[in-house]
Amino acid sequence: MIDSENETGSITTYEDDDNEEYGIEIKGKNVVRLNADKVLVKTQLLTTAQDLAGAINELFQGGSGSETPADSDYEKWLSLPEPADNQAVFLVRAVEGYMSCSIYTGLPYDYTEQAEGWSVDWGDGTVETFPNINSSASHTYSEIGEYVVTFTNICGDNTNARVSSQRWIMGKYGDNVYIDRVIGGTENLRMSSQQYLRYLRLPPGTHFGAYFFNGCNCLKKFEFDGVIEQLYEGFFQSCYALDFSKIKFGDITEIPVSCFNYCRGMKKIPLSDCVTVGNQAFANCYSLCDVSLPNCTSIGANAFNSCYGLHAVSAPKCTSIGASAFYYNYVLNTAKFDSCTSAGNYVFSSCSGLVNLTLAADCTFGTNCFQNCYSLYPKPDGSA
Predict the structure, then answer these.
(1) Which of 36, 137, 265, 300 has a beta carbon 3.0–4.6 Å from 322's, enabling a disulfide?
(2) Same domain for 259 and 195?
(3) SS3 52
(4) Across the chain, what does the average pLDDT equal?
(5) Among 171, 191, 219, where does a domain finish?
(6) Phi then psi dihedrals of residue 322, to 5 deg
(7) Do residues 364 and 347 make contact, with C-beta atoms less than 8 angstroms apart?
(8) 169 and 228 fall within a common domain
(9) Domain that holds residue 184
């Protein structure tokens, strides 16, 4: 942790054990970060919410977020061994206090009679083989460092494999190794809370579920040689740095609750043809600037709450907007909802920059819909 002083008070920048930036403390709208040489850098004093959103996005994207040779993490991920179809390869970091790593599998019980079900090369010279009756294995490293862990499914059946380590930073899966596969109707494993995971490749047969990537704060790139056909509650929640531009989505019409909540690096909604937007679906997406939802008919409560960089939104077919859906979007200038007949409580509260608003003539309003909308006059609900 580094403390600094400037004209607005103290600033604290937090580092992980490898001296790589992962957090900030903001005082008076100054933002600090570490540059490539681990030198503390302070931006100019920020004057608008959009400037602040951009600075925060730059921090969590690690600068431009582009994949260049200077991105040592990305190069390291590319250099990981390519797994065979029945393998998964992980890179884990052992540091003081976090020296252990575990592997969890989901082999079907039909194969428990096999003496050799799967093996793990822990990357420090230790290789262990386990019968299928074993569903997990753990290993503690004797020295601090980074280790390439290789899981191999010997019995040949498609199976799950997941590393459990707060220091797992990247991984690749073979085509016959799955994450969160349904076995006996139960969703088993997922990537949630892997807070240091940076790069990941999953096979086409991966089964996804609720909160699959929740809490993967540092995940920058997610490769999936397939199409995501369905979204789930909290699916990408708190994926601060994830690049959504390369992810393939099917014809998805519903954005579930909290699906993209706190996706701070999202600049454009990847599913503009959606019909419904759930509660908190895009809340705290600081980098969203323009939102166009031509087919959306309903927007849930808090759906775009605290999208500090959002300055224009259009959903001409939307008939209902939930409570606080656009609360605290204080640079929002233009909002077009030509068909909206129902606006919930506090729906545009604290949108202090809102000037242009279009709603249906017979729209009904909840309480304090336009509280602190200083630039909007007259207000559609007749309030002062």
Answers:
(1) 300
(2) no
(3) helix
(4) 81
(5) 219
(6) -75, 170
(7) no
(8) no
(9) 68-219
| CB-based contact 164:90 (threshold 8 Å) | no
Residues 190/202, Cβ–Cβ less than 8 Å: no
Distance CA(24)–CA(157), nearest Å, equals 45
Instruction: Give the pLDDT score at 125.
Output: 97
Q: What pTM, to 2 d.p., does this model score?
A: 0.79
| CA 178 vs CA 70, 150, 205, 210: distances in Å | 31, 14, 7, 16
Record the tokens describing residue 89, joined without a space. 């390869």
Q: Which residue has the tokens 């206090």?
A: 97
- CATH number of the domain to which 161 belongs: 2.60.120
Q: Are 291 and 314 in contact (CB under 8 A)?
A: yes
pLDDT digits (tens, 9 = 90+) for 305-357: 999 999 999 999 999 999 999 999 999 999 999 999 999 999 999 999 999 99
- Shared domain for 236 and 370, answered yes or no, is yes
Q: Which of 184, 219, 254 is the last residue of a domain?
A: 219
**Do 17 and 96 lie in a common domain?**
no
Same domain, 215 and 231: no
Question: Can you tell me whether residue 7 is helix, strand or coil?
Answer: coil
Buried b (16+ CB within 10 A) or exposed e, 149-184: bbbbbbbebbbbbbbbbbbbbbbbbbebbbbbbebe
Place of tokens 């052992």: 94
Q: Is 148 helix (H, G, I), strand (E, B) or coil?
A: strand
Residues 34 and 81 in one domain: no
CA separation for the pair 159, 107 (Å, rounded)? 5
- Dihedral pair phi/psi, residue 111, rounded to 5°: -105, 15
Instruction: Write down the H helix ranges in the chain.
Output: 49-61, 72-78
Number of domains within the chain: 3
Same domain, 112 and 231: no
